């Protein structure tokens, strides 16, 4: 069996990865499991330590340092912790320019200072066999035990989403397929999309949303199909109302141009907030006060069906088969 490109599917995780995780440790409250992008460890009487790790590769050079912070940092933030400590490995092809590393480190440093984080270790080098710059960041943060947020829902909880669905795909298309997109977008629109990579983070979203939510998730590879993982882990179903989905008009143009489904496209930086119904309006208001577009997309249900209501018709909510972002990246 050959592994498909992109994130490993859950059946491979269950069959190959999860049975080979070393010894059990009483300090591990939540370890590797489907739909959980961070680990939760005991840390004293009152706190948990949240730990997440993520690679950065195949991204535009201008974005490398930013994502070296935010890919892993976002996974810590959605568990309710501010990213506090980072361990960063940067592997470069032989002959890489020093200027690339300088910019990446300056950008990483800027994000650390913005959010009160420290790089406490790592490894940096240039090696044969490395074809393009790769970073792997492990981010850590503390959360009070009574403030831990898990990607779990109860029937009746609302699904609130921040308005960045499909942005990751559109930004990547602007960098990797600019010549094609000139048929669709103006030079100014393409330039705007390129600078919009700075919205591909859930750190500010999650830190703002924390007081109003039961749990959170970053809609990365597979996009909004992450709702299935939340429902699986929670023993619930969900209903999504297609007419409530709000896409940036420019993102909508790009998705339509490539025939991409907004429900399953990688949407890094899009916060899925699991919100008690009485807090939904307050959450959306607070996010919008902080310049973050958000909207209610649906709700979790006691009925375990996963339903998309579109044009008055009920259908099964899409599942994650393949992510169009992977094809975009592989054909750069």
List the helices and strands and how they pair.
Blueprint: H1 10-17, E1 28-30, E2 39-43, E3 47-56, H2 64-77, E4 85-92, H3 98-115, E5 118-126, E6 134-144, E7 158-162, H4 167-176, H5 178-181, H6 187-195, H7 203-209, E8 215-218, H8 226-234, E9 237-241, H9 249-258, E10 271-275, H10 280-289, E11 294-301, E12 306-310, E13 313-316, H11 324-330
Parallel strand pairs: 4-5, 9-12
Antiparallel strand pairs: 1-2, 2-3, 3-6, 4-6, 7-10, 7-11, 8-10, 9-11, 12-13
Helix pairs in contact: 2-3, 2-7, 4-6, 4-9, 4-11
Commentary on this structure:
The protein is an alpha+beta fold. The chain has two domains: 10-147, PurM-like, N-terminal domain (60s Ribosomal Protein L30, Chain: A, 2-Layer Sandwich), CATH 3.30.1330; 158-330, Phosphoribosyl-aminoimidazole Synthetase, Chain A, domain 2. The protein is 32% helix and 25% strand. The protein contains eleven helices and 13 strands. The strands form two sheets. Strands 8-10-7-11-9-12-13 form a seven-stranded mixed β-sheet, with helices on both faces. The longest helix is centred in the first third of the chain and has 18 residues, at 98-115. The two termini are 26 Å apart. The model has no long low-confidence stretch (mean pLDDT 95).
